[in-house]
Amino acid sequence: MVLIVFLLAYLVRRKLDSSGHFSGDALWRAWFHRGSRVHAGAETSVGGGLALVLLPAFLSGLLEYLLTGYGIRWLVYPVEFIVLVAMMGAPGWKRVLRAYSDAWSRDDMQGAWHHVRDWLPLEERQEDSSAESMHLSLSRAFMVSIFERYFLVAFWFVVGGMPAAILARGLVALAEQWPQAAARPRFVRWAEWLAWIPARVVSITFGIAGDLAGWLSEAKGLLLAVRKPAGELLAESANSALTGYALDPERFLKVHPDEWSRFGSTSLGAVRDLLNRTMLVWLCAVALLVIAGVV
């Protein structure tokens, strides 16, 4: 049932993302509003944030334990479905990427930047940045967002069920949205710890789903870089697994200068296709694990 529940939740979540409905980020933001006020000098405290994530994780585990103990395990499955739909999802990206690609095709880089600036990391929102660096920042931000809201949740759901999925997604939400900004760096570090194994599994899957020969040429440096952040690992892995310089704008411009106006949409399309194929590989892998009786 793990595969069936996740597959149904994934399909529903993709539909919601396409229509731009029901953001899990809004749900976490409303939940974290309880931590908007702290005593002076306690801005770096992480206890309140952790409690707000551990509480739903604990309650979900307790509910599963009780339902199983009373012999009504089947009631856990709809609860898991609801939890996965709430934990996954990245609505809004479709609209932003379309507007960005349209502006890029018109050679309106200023307009493209205005469309995506709020979706980029704070340290990468320089208005005077080049088109190449802007595109790489956007591609990396998009991949990280999909990784944290789909692959990270999927990995920990398969490994540890609802509590682990809620904890992993909750730490990401704390790193991005906890009202006390001074405490966020610690949440970022903990979220990176939970992402360490899933990010490397995704990296390997990029090679399977993309250009395996190209990925293998960089595999040793990627997988042995134990301190490399998940975002950098995903971006470099995707670059090695994609053909046609999809994530190398400088090389693309030199080789195909006449097609530069199409690079924005072509590159993002290649990244989306790679992520979709990667999720398909994950679903097949989970199916094999279910058949083997591992999960």
Automatic annotation (TrEMBL):
Provide one Gene Ontology biological process annotation: response to antibiotic
Xref: InterPro entries: Beta-lactamase_Reg (IPR052966)
The answer on whether this UniProt entry bears the keyword S-adenosyl-L-methionine reads no
**Keywords per UniProt:** Membrane, Transmembrane, Transmembrane helix
Entry's transmembrane regions: 46-67, 74-93, 150-172, 193-216, 274-294
Q: Name one GO cellular component term.
A: plasma membrane
Q: What is this protein called?
A: AmpE protein
